[in-house]
Amino acid sequence: MNIKFLTKLVKTFFRSIMKQLTFFCFLLCMHFSAKAQTDPLTQVHGARSQGMGNLRVHGTDTWSYFNNPGGLAKLESSAISAGYDSRFGIKELGTVDLVGAWKIKAGTLGFGVSRYGGKLFNQQSLGLAFANKLGIVSIGGKLEWFQTQIEGFGSGNSLIFSLGGMAELSPTFSIGASISNLNRSKISKDSETRLPTGVSLGLFYSPISQFQIHLEVEKDIQIKPIVKAGLEYALKDWIFLRTGINSNPSRLFFGMGLKSNQFSLDYAYGQNQALGSTNHLSLGFSLTEK
Which region is the signal sequence (predicted)? Predict the structure, then answer.
């Protein structure tokens, strides 16, 4: 038998075995650490929120579509935003997002599309949200299609429902909550592995108009709670400084933002002692001049 043919056959068999082992390891990681593997589903989006410590609950911009759909009801005007996240200097861990919100008589409509990963492993989502304000309460829901794709093993598709809201108890103090994957959707119809279900509770306090204090607790059913704290200070009406901290694992965040009547530019930097640094950039455009 031809030696070259045998060599090629052995290499093909070895690659097949390695793919099987890779897929097995992936499923094992999904079972024990699903949160870390399911971007963009579980990640906080938008450089403003990330600069204050990956805050989720009290955002009041277009990125609320991903983080807490109830926050869309507090938008002053229709807007559209785009963002990019670079994690630990690895291209395959990057996320690209596009999100928008439209003010209508009945409330606020939102849409979002996101893609995470590279050629071998990637996840993407596409969905719609609706939010409305009822007295002191802003509440919203989101329905999205979520796909996980692994080269050589196909893809899994899911429909996910998320809910969130906040209550403004005074002009300077509010509370809020967000629940992602409320229906506990599975990674695919052929798998028993469920996508993460996360609950976030948050407090917001603004002692003066230029200064905001945020405190949150985030709990995924498969991991320990994460405590988050963040600050934002407005140096001027158009420039903002931000910082935040997380537990489990310990992480530090810094950020800044520039804002005009119609445009916004935000940058955030995160530091994880074990893994390295992350960089986040967001651009926003208001469709109606304020």
Answer: 1-36
- Using DSSP, state whether 269 is helix, strand or coil: strand
Sign of the dihedral through C-alpha 33, 217, 266, 123? positive
Query: Residue 119 and residue 139: Cα distance in Å, rounded?
Result: 37
Pull the structure tokens for residue 215.
Answer: 């405190």
Residue 138 has φ and ψ, to the nearest 5°, of -110, 125
Question: Which CATH number describes the domain made up of 3-286?
Answer: 2.40.160.60
Residue 87, number of CB atoms within 10 A of its CB: 21
Residue among 265, 262, 220, 217 at smallest CA distance from 239 = 265
3-state helix/strand/coil string of 63-115: CHHHHCHHHHHHCCCCEEEEEEEEECCEEEEEEEEEEEEEEECCEEEEEEEEE
142, β-bridge pairs: 129, 162
Taking the model in full, what pTM does it have?
0.84
Q: How far apart are CA 49 and CA 138, in angstroms?
A: 19
> Using an 8 Å Cβ cutoff, are 228 and 55 in contact?
yes
Token pair of 226, please? 């994460």
Q: Is the pLDDT of residue 35 over 80?
A: no
Tokens of 76: 């002053």
